[in-house]
């Protein structure tokens, strides 16, 4: 019954996508609350002014790196599982799950040791000052202790969604986030344990531990179609290579985000001081919240696209692409209107300092001025990942952030734009990167599918090999 229930080659394409996308979107939004709620509370600490919020902002590139390694395994393995399910090869799909889990364990331990050993020089390199370092150090030290929990919860949850259990994947995140929201004020403020920044980090670690346990219980239980089995938890070169190749898209997206955050923090610190680093922390927090529905929709569309691609139902793949792009553009336009009309209201969620509001409103409007084009990149890149087109997915992950954004972030302030040049660089990269990715997806993937009758062999260049 479970196999028929989650057969994406049948029924309405929009219905199949939204069945996954709605709970996955809710899960993505709730997942952001892990860090955003921390920043909201810390931004209103009366004893720390903006320093606690800015200190957390300095740690964000490291958090992005950890998430990047989780995505390497999760977004690399989950689409392969969807394609294998479409072929009817559940045995191969379960081997992919086991291999991905082994990768997560090893990477999690290595990342923890690396950052604990080098956290002080890395934090200063990433934009910490003598005033903000104590806050960044306190938060990061505790957060790193829970790295393995973060890796497992983020890296294995896509394998639940890939099987069609979108609601269960949502519950994974909601359970942890709910615990985090409850523990944050208890650990941070005077009426509880009064731990400040340390309390925010501890609440996050406990929450991620609960989410990780939930994922493992489900994937090893009877309700899962594809299970995590002890016999499959091992490294096999060909599967590791396939997972890595496809997962590099999500990995590089996080790595380039981390790179740009580092460059932005360093540039803003030089041209605007801690005030502008704090403003960028607020803007990044808003971006994380409002871009999550786009991620939820593209992630919900990927299992449907991959399953139908593996089942050689190409017209349904095209329909899934059209639907996901349309909804993505409509949503991103709605958020763009909100950012342009009410930037002050959005900033006050995190901080109501007059200087932050004065400079932050201008910065926010510049940063999000071309946000709609960013959504086109996410939609196009989601198609590349869902159909196993690893080379294109990796290239466009690098193009927008590393090739366009990072150099402009350094160059534009030098040309006289000051700290606002950092935000202009982001807007330009959204325009150029989004158009390049979407146009390429249309001509390389979407149009060629029109010439393929259902049941025809998959074209060369797509993930089709049996590992």
Question: How would you describe this structure to a colleague?
Answer:
This protein is 81% helix and 0% strand. The relative contact order is 0.14. It has helices at residues 2-5, 13-43, 51-87, 90-125, 133-145, 147-161, 166-188, 197-219, 237-272, 274-310, 314-341, 343-348, 354-367, 371-386, 390-417, 420-450. The protein is built from 16 helices and no strands. α14 (371-386) packs across α16 (420-450). With 467 residues, it is mainly α. It has one domain (12-450).
The description of the largest β-sheet is: none
Strand content: under 5%
Number of structurally distinct domains: 1
Range of helix content: over 70%
Written as H for each helix and E for each strand, in order along the chain, the element string is: HHHHHHHHHHHHHHHH
Mean pLDDT: 84
The number of distinct helices, counting runs of at least 4 residues, comes to 16
Low-confidence stretches: 461-467
Give the total of beta strands: 0
Radius of gyration: 21 Å
Distance between the termini: 27 Å
Query: Based on helices, strands and strand pairing, what is the structural class?
Result: mainly alpha
Shape: globular
